[in-house]
Amino acid sequence: MKAIISLVLRYIPRPYLQLVGHWAARFLSIFYLGNKVECPVCNSQYRKFLPYGRNTSSRENALCPGCLSLERHRLMGLYLRRKTNFFTDKLKVLHVAPEYCFIDRFEKMDNLDYITGDIESPLAKVKMDIHQIPFPDNTFDVAFCNHVMEHVDDYILAMSELHRILKPGGWALIQSPQDMKYATTYEDATITDPKEREKYFLQNDHLRLFGRNYGRELEKGGFTVIEDRFVMDELSKEEVKRYALPGEEIVYFCKK
Predict the structure, then answer these.
(1) Dist. CA 111–CA 152, nearest whole Å
(2) Confidence band for 13, pLDDT divided at 50, 70 and 90
């Protein structure tokens, strides 16, 4: 299974995967029936989740076959429900590079005016470049933009644009891959070999790898940043295991 998923992720373009991947995952779900793990996004239960990753050493117990949530998506879903007003207040929301597991659920929520945007995703309603978001200042109450800043040319400009379109008092979740052994953001444009870029930046299409300073980088976009150790400080080991969450991921709660 690992080898098959690795080949699919490496050689099928992401836009096509976004359109058809859920059908394949739902078929595979019949082989994972059980109740040892639970997805807080779709509330489905399985004996375990599917493996996921671009190489054969991919992560075990990672991909929910019901909604395609990964560890980071399940963390976000749980965080939104337990620590924010996302499910209770009337909110205008911009979701950049929207994840399949959230789109239908958020669109059906009566309290949300929910807009999706991306430069290439077929799932997004608005085609947009995050360096120049096509909405006026102070438009949204909430913004989501996860695992995007490692891809963009100018991440400070992208962060500033998200800050600009939020209303005063608005907030954003802007997660990105990190390596805590680095004190600062690691970039090296001289590394051009795809295998080398994957080695140093986790994927060959990543332009950088953020370090322990990621919260400070977000502040350069204008945000007040709360580094919330939600998983480590507030969840039990049993919850982390049952929901298959990233064990040490910090949630960056960004306020305007």
Answers:
(1) 31
(2) low
Q: Which of 143, 173, 197 is nearest to 250 (CA)?
A: 173
Q: What token pair was written down for 34?
A: 């059980």
Q: Exposure of 20 by Cβ count < 10 A (0-12 exposed, 13-18 middle, 19+ buried)?
A: exposed
What percentage of the chain has pLDDT greater than the value 70?
Answer: 86
Asked if 148 and 157 touch (Cβ cutoff 8 Å), the reply is: no
Structural domains in the chain, CATH included, are: 2-69 (no CATH), 72-255 (3.40.50.150)
Query: How many Å apart are CA 1 and CA 227, to the nearest integer?
Result: 36
pLDDT digit string, tens, across residues 42-55: 999 999 998 887 66
Buried b or exposed e, range 29-42, using 16+ CB within 10 angstroms: beebeeeebbbbbb
Burial of 55 (0-12, 13-18, 19+ CB in 10 A): exposed
Write down the pLDDT at residue 28. 66
Q: Which amino acid is at 15?
A: P
Listed range (46-55, 61-70, 120-129) with the worst mean pLDDT: 46-55
Distance CA 167, CA 133 (A): 14
Q: How far is CA 216 from CA 130, 161, 172, 184, 243, in A?
A: 20, 16, 15, 10, 29
Tens digit of pLDDT for each residue in 179-196? 999 999 988 889 989 888
**DSSP letter, residue 247:** T
- Please state, for a pLDDT cut of 90, what percent of the chain lies above it: 73
